[in-house]
User: Fold these one by one.
Assistant:
Number 1:
Amino acid sequence: MKNLSIKSIKARQVFDSRGLPTLETDIVLEDGSFGRAMVPSGASTGTHEAVELRDGDKNYFHGKGVNKALHSVNEEIASAIKGKNAGDQKSLDEAMINLDGSANKSKLGANAILSVSLAASRAAAASLKIPLYRYIREAFNLKLNSWILPTPMLNVINGGKHADSGLNIQEFMLVPTGASSFSEALRMASETYQTLKKILASKKLSVGVGDEGGFAPHIKTHEEVLGLLSDAILQSGYEGKIKIALDAAASEFCEDGNYTFESKTLSASEMTARYKGWIEKYGLISLEDPLSEDDWSGWKALTAELGSRCKIIGDDIFVTNPQRLAKGIKENAANSILIKLNQIGTLTETVETVLQAQKAGFSCVISHRSGETEDSYIGDLAVALNAGAIKSGAPCRSERLSKYNQLIRIEEELADQSIYSGLAPFRMKAVA
């Protein structure tokens, strides 16, 4: 691969979908090639995530400014990597990790490091005149024989920290497994989303949306929400072709090992029983973060009971971290992992975590954050890694749709070279 020397690096403060500051970094190579990347931000964040560096000055964006992270990019990182080869992604990321020197990127900030890591990959792809998804595959020498378009998981009812609906469960998702292509999957999901909107309006429930574009109605029970989703799927003509998935984000309603759920205090085993009932009644295809991030014994028991019937996806428990994932694999504490770039802080570490999961037989879901940007990077990443599934929110709001629209473009470009993942990432395997 030719030398793609970095000429200049410039970060600036821009805004995410919640109107809060975030980083955007531009990289220009010596040959004039240009790459830009923006960094998202989570609301329901795992305590074990890499550190998102914020200023903490309450008189400046209520403490959410990113001037410290800007300084990290424009001064320390720029000085360290100018002149380096943007095409050597692993060495570039390793240099920034070593420059930071902390266990969780708290010195420079994972947001600062990630913005440079992603911008460099875009600049390299531009220099080589190949699409980003092809570049990522080549940069990591991935010997994959197919191009897989991921199955989208669309959050159409928002709860938890993503809305003020009063629901404990954070995300109720539609998963169009029965489509023949990605573009058809989006059509099915969009039609069902609009049908759901009509159903909610007919019941005089709010059709305002939460952080991820899903509706945020005040509904007393989670079972009622599942019933509404089932009705919307049926009325749209997609029964059996669209499945339901949940992201509980259970760490948000867990305290001292117990779960406060619909005004009741439940144990991990009682939560497991609740989920089991919903799997049987509503055919749930996956459960994300069904228990708290450090409830390892609960996760292990839940996966043993439900893991052969439903994907058990770890987000807060794994935080895209290879060490935590290794423990989960060893203990059979899940059978799938959610992948978020800013939880770990570099493209290299993200790719390595995906490969580790796939080698162990875990499925992977590439994910957005609740505080998103118009950057569509994760669409290319999902295709590059044949990840199988992607979460980017509802078919509503441009920061969500930018990822889905990019996947439509990629599908068109690949034409008959690609296949749609469909049900494949959700097929169940017995837990050992």
Note: The longest strand covers residues 6-15.
Number 2:
Amino acid sequence: MELFNVVFQSVLAIIGIGVLGFYILRRGIIPENVIAVLSRLAIDIALPSVVFASIIMNFDPQKVPDWWQLPLWWFLFAAVALAITLPARFLVRDTFRSEFTVSLFFQNGLFFPIIIIEGLYGPGSLYLVQLFIFIIFHPVLFFSTYYLFFGRQAGENQQPVLNLQRIFNPVLIVTLLAMAIVLSGAEQYLPFFIVNMFDMLGAMTLPLIMIILGGSLYIDFQKKGKIFFKEVLKFVAIKNIFFPLVFLGLLSLVQPSYHIALIIFLQSAVPPITGIPIRVAEMGGNVSLANQYILGSFLFSIITIPAMFLLFNRIFPMP
């Protein structure tokens, strides 16, 4: 029960910051047009900073000799996730299919796992470094393929252009740079203040992202659009329950190392990536529905992630 409580409180902390973001926008503490600026700050500055500092301070190839396998495991995870997503998309009507599919496939691969890993294993855990290496190509996949999930009913006249700045994004560059520094042994020559600076900058990543999400939901709910209860429940059942159960079954058969099983499980159990509504708007899709998918998945994750973690712990007991 203690395990459930730790994971429960970790997820609740994330949701609480999102609620704060909703409140901040509702009270007019910051104007709505600041959300876009905060989003760039979080994605292009804060997130790369936490990745860089964590790898420099905690990455030890000798402790995890199979670190190079982690991106390969991510490819396998993405392939299985796609195999689940493609048939699942036919459970919804054509008018909802694009938003449903893109939200189902692209998981919140960093923010939820970070807070859960820190809650269970401490802020300096080696599992964080392994998470960053595992997820290194996830943003590349997202920015290079999200538009493929949209059909004619959404974005028919859109002409998406591959944004190389997003594909070769700061997180990818910083991850590769930090790993190269550690593997070459050059980290010992880095002045402490540089690593400390990136560490402090990275500390604002999660609060910023969740405040942005809460604020974005407030902006959307101001429009008072239709609430898609049935569609949201259907999405939550597949994303929050069916997805992790499938991966738990596969992990129990394959029996990989604990750190690999942990990261794959977390990827399967978390809600959608928070950047989806922006891309849905870009493609002319239903932004309100995308936001409701995310909100519903976030709220249900308060219970589903701790419950699924209990099942995971039965198969892979904490070392």
Note: The longest helix spans residues 287-315.
Number 3:
Amino acid sequence: MRIGIISDTHDRLPTIHAALERFEQLGIDTLLHPGDIIAPFAARPLADFPAALHVTYGNNDGERAGLRAVLPQIQDGPLFLELAGKSVLVHHFVDWCSPDDIERADLIVTGHTHQVAIDKRDGKIFVNPGECCGWVTGRCTIATIDLDNDEVELIEIPA
């Protein structure tokens, strides 16, 4: 099972659309977004994407009621999922994950820093795909992970 990971989209519609187009080309049917969508208008393309979407609020998602109207599944982290026999933790910032939460997860998906961070340690995979928006680093990045072999791929999206 290959899933898509997108974070820190920060209202930048062109890169959101480009990322979703890439995920569609890859046949992604499950998408994780650990927060900082920002406004409801930027949530609409995510809601319309033909995949299961699991999403948490980020620290800049201030218009919570509007986001919830578009994405009823959005919630505060930590969010735990079982995907392909693996325990997946989704939260906006890795530092907000308790040691107990990390202990019970096989895959930890976060964002917040806008920096790509892919790490395998202690039998766990940590993935921060960086920022889809490109506002801070100048790089628009997303990721996929194949849960059958734990391979993570970082994908650059044209800005």
Note: The first helix runs from residue 13 to 25.
Number 4:
Amino acid sequence: MIIRPIEVRDAEKFLELSKRIDESGFMLFEPGERQTTVEQQRISIERILSEPNSIFFVAEIENNLVGFIAVIGSNLTRNRHSANIVLGVLEDYRGQDISTKIFNKVSEWAKEVGISRLGLTVIKNNNKAFNLYRKMGFVLEGERIQSLKINGEFVNEYYLYKLL
């Protein structure tokens, strides 16, 4: 397995990966909702690559993308030290330490660019992800009530953070 920064040439594979991960029901996009084109994905990757406090790492096995972590930072003075992350790994590849390795890569990168705080959200009933984040050193910061509506029902999210 290789953990590496995303490249523009990954646009099509990354878009397919994102759509497959959306099917889990635990991402912000509903299954089938993502309407991004490959060209739009290319532009998005180019934009991310041009931002000094943002990066996407992908997990690649045998030329297939099987997971990713997006780190979205800011260039504003007051919160330049902070970034939000989104993690996704294909179901068939969970439990293989991909998430741990990808988180470790993010921690190394964040320290290099001066990010000292990572934040994320997780759907309250996504116990596997919540437990993973806690294992990786994230601390529960709070709960956002009725922040999402899934299958017609309001759902809460947990906010977590980690100081590096």
Note: Residues 29 and 73 are 21 Å apart (CA to CA).
